[in-house]
Amino acid sequence: MGDLDHLFENNKKWAKGLLDGEPEFFSKLSKQQNPKYLWIGCADSRVPANQIVDLPPGEVFVHRNIANMVVHTDFNCLSVMQYAVEVLNIDHIIVCGHYGCGGIASAMGSDDHGLIDNWLRHIKDVERFNVDELRGLSEQEQLNRLCELNVVEQVTNVCNTTIVRDARRAGENLSVHGWIYDIGNGILKDLQQTSK
Ligand code: CO
User: Fold this and answer.
1) CATH number, domain 34-190
2) 98 is catalytic
3) 152-193 per-position pLDDT tens digit
4) Is 77 a known active-site residue?
5) Which of 63, 92, 96, 101 is an active site residue?
6) CB under 8 Å to 58, separation ≥6 — which residues?
7) Structural domain spans, the chain
8) What does the pLDDT look like over 66-101, one tens digit per residue?
9) 42 is a catalytic site residue
């Protein structure tokens, strides 16, 4: 018995459960994917894209990294976006942050974390852009507000990519949304940052 056998057991039960509901589920899905949504979210284990919006495999194209960042020169994220927009023709890009984000909390502190501090530096930029608004809030309020402001900033970054600009120039309908998820109650909130 291997340490991870239970994961394979889980997988068999999960696949059987889907097939019991729809015998053709995997054979249909294996021929093509046609997701309408690109989800850019945090890598946090408590924020699983499909489960939060209760969608099955095939419905959400997903990119996750620490603190749901869209960095101008991150070719990993940009490649996902280009494929989603130009090949899959998705209609909606959702940037989803979450309250209590460890990446944001680390960026707000002054401890050293090694390599990841270079990534978190982008969040420090967001903090600096919004220093007037954050000043005067309690530490907890600052963290939660910076989680929201980070989403707002990343929505702007998505809109400024050549990918979204080119798609819009070509007349495509492409909406970019900013959402935040509450890990304390499982509820999503639209930050009303939708760009169409
Ligand atoms: Co996070």
Assistant:
1) 3.40.1050.10
2) yes
3) 999 999 999 999 999 999 999 999 999 999 999 999 999 998
4) no
5) 101
6) 29, 33, 34, 35
7) 1-32, 34-190
8) 999 999 999 999 999 999 999 999 999 999 999 999
9) yes
